[in-house]
Structure of Amidinotransferase:
Amino acid sequence: MKVNVQGERWHPSEKSFAEEMPDHWGQWYCDSEVAPLKAVLMHRPGDEISEIHENNYADYRFRGSIQPDRARKQQDALAKIYRDHGISVHYVKHQRKDKPNAMYVRDLMFMTPEGAIVGRAGNPFRRGEEKAVAQTLTELGVPIISTINGNGIFEGACAMWLDRETVVLGTGSRANESGIRQVEFELRNLGVTDIIKTQIPYGSIHLDGYMNMVAKNKMVIFPWHVTYDCAKQLMERDIQLIEATNIEEIKHMMALNFVALEPGKVVIPAGNPDTTALLRQEGIEVIAVEMDEIMNGWGANHCMTAFLRREPLK
């Protein structure tokens, strides 16, 4: 006998979002800084950087004027390295034409195993860039699990995955307590159990200015900016701290602003011979790419690259 089930007499699916995400949203995932990289989001510099010149570069926190064509060629070279390694490169669409910092996409989002957290920039002249990132994520099918709101400030480079259960969160000029609390809430909802909180010092704006992972249990640090409490918690998790100490390379050539393509293989800004030698000494494969023009905006490889998908580490 056929039974008609009507009204509210039905039962919802008890599958988790993570179980259903590949079917309904696609393959998007990140819980590591070093797991094999499969997809990234970038913004190719457009007409907006043509407005940066000798008389106004400081207004946008640039360290000098910029040659647009040369900057584009340098970013294109980085994107080619990604593609040559089988990484899908997606580009932000609909970005405003009055936002010359928009090429530094990592600041605008933080990827998780179940979707993106869209940030809220610290600098007021960057606010509004997030909208184009959110629109692009939606068009790609990347879930947006949260957007920083209220009086919160958070940029993606103020967070760093150590493993599926552990994230470093830093407060400073680009992330305040309200923003970090919102991010922590979402991360704990996704199963992150360990949050290492640290202050980003006055001389840096993001974590990747003085620390970055190169392998599953190896991190390169600029030791004079890592707090004792943070270093202690890292070492307690059996993470080897590799100390890079060439101040010129760290602070001016952005030696730690590299991207791991996979464990033990990174693409680093060119012009950092001491740091490159240190990495190779530790068994890390290094690919160098010219970034000196891009650096005039105080950013490089890592700043321009928002992760969309990394394979889970086994």
